[in-house]
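Structural prep section.
Before we set up the soaks we want a predicted structure of the protein with adenosine-5'-diphosphate in place, mainly to decide which crystallisation condition to try first. Input record follows.
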Amino acid sequence: MIKPKKLIWQIFPVSVLTILVAIVAVSWYGAVTLQEFYFQETENDLEARASLVSERVLQLLKQQSIAELRDYSIRMGRDSGTRITVIRKDGKVLADSSENPELMDNHRMRREIDIAFAGSVGKSRRYSKTLGENRIYVALPLVDRLNSPQTEGMPVSYVIRTSVSVASLARTLENIRIRIIGVSLAVMIFAGVVTLLVSRNVSKPLEQMTESARQFSLGDFSKKMLPLSTKSASLEIVTLAGSMDRMAKLLDEKIQAILTHGNQLETILSSMVEAVIVIDTSEQVIRLNESAALLFGVNRKTVPGKFVQQLVRNVRLQQKITRTLATREADLDEVVAYNSSVGERFLQTNIVSLSDGQGAYVGVLVVMNDVTRMRKLEEVRRDFVANVSHELKTPITSIHGYVETLLDGALDNRDDARKFLKIILKQSGRLSAIIEDLLSLSRIEQQSRKKEITYKQTALYPVIRQAIETCQVKADTAGVSLEVDCPEDLTLRINSTLVEQAVVNLVVNAITYSGRGDMVKITVTASVAETSGTVRITVEDQGCGIAAKHLPRLFERFYRSDQARSRSLGGTGLGLAIVKHIAQAHRGTVEVESSLGSGSTFTLVLHDDQLAQNKNSLKNL
Ligand code: ADP
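Run finished without errors. Recording the tokens verbatim:
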């Protein structure tokens, strides 16, 4: 491809060349015309001179005074700076102002002389063999005008010829030519400079406009098409620049509007909890939001352009998208997707067809709502209801059965009646314990959710002591000793009733699952970091321990590592769940360390920033 030339190189050389041709043509024509004019003037002049001397020459010829004629010729020739020659009809030169006529050739056949003898004024410009130079000759037929007024058609016997050298003329002409060339050159240089300036004036604003347009194409609309400093621009260019400025302004506004619109859309999409994917009719992903990228474990930037099958690995979801793409029918459903990083996910999917502003079908929009938590909660609630029903059913069935047996006649047998009533009492106690635990669990949950739990800076030792006292009777009955190690000056921001309940639950469990003669040790330690303090209440027993497989689910409601044993020991399966909720209400945790046969250690971990502050203030003292 030919590289386009700059505008200045298109205008300038052509203009200079045109000017050059014009000047050369005009100069040449002028020089030629001038030369011709000069020659003609000289010829007229020679004719006049010849005419002036012709009277006298004719007179001398008539007198046959050839010697005098020669003198006259020489004198007149010298005075007028003209060569004067007189020629007879046979071509013999009778007199010449410059040469000896005797030595001169026959001049009859000289062109000007021939014409003159024919009766006209002969003119010629040619080389003189006699003088060896270029000359202009004018030959006049000599006719006696005085004696014969009618000269026309008269035979011509003599011719007078005048001539001058062309050399001096040529010199003069040469000088004139040199001046013409000089002036032409000056005009050419001047015209060249002017053309260059004009070309630059035309091309400069265009170059500036090109630069501004380049900036526009890069998205920078801050500059004007023509800077204010550009004064040389023509009206057309200024008008064009103005139009382009207006166009750029409109474009800028449109781009800004699109960007704002895009940013708003992006913000909306990014802040949506729902996963959103936009797919075109060729099943390629056009756009997806952060939630979708997270859900499918992909990098959001690299997905657009990929096929939906590469993103969505779920066959059912793929089928649904393909179906909506084909039928354009909206699809609302729920699918279970699996992702290695986020695991099993329940997704409520809503797939609708998408149309552009003109109503043309462009693809589908997939909105996925992750309802995993909701489904899991539903599952937990279902399990909980089933568990509660199951837990309540056993004592109720038992009570119901024994009451029936009593009514059926066992009431009459005093011993049986007593035995059965004891069982009914035990089962109703169990019922009451379960209901009480359930109530306290839901109370903690509710109060915690509504932020109704009150916390106070409390000395921990009395709380632990109170819990031990509550459990002492049970410990004594079970033959288990209790040991407490708690700093007496430790204060903590807690709800003392709840913390006491948690400690009671842990200690009761420890007693329950310990053997006679075992010891349960309650230790309280406080550690203070730079900004927060941590208090660990540890309940350690030497009991049966818990198999590792049960540990992860131990704090779930109604979860028991040993169903039969727990029930027979009067456990409700809610004690540890209550402890967990109490810990959470204090922004704390509960941990367990245990293995089958080697006792268990439960730790309630509570945090208090006040501890750190106290320590820091002590340090500063
Ligand atoms: P329960 O009322 O049955 O004790 P918990 O929620 O308090 O219910 O305890 C859940 C289960 O954890 C118990 O059934 C028991 O199997 C196990 N467990 C709790 N504490 C201990 C412990 N200190 N030693 C052994 N097993 C324990």
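Observations: The first strand starts at residue 83 and ends at 88.
Flagged for discussion at group meeting.
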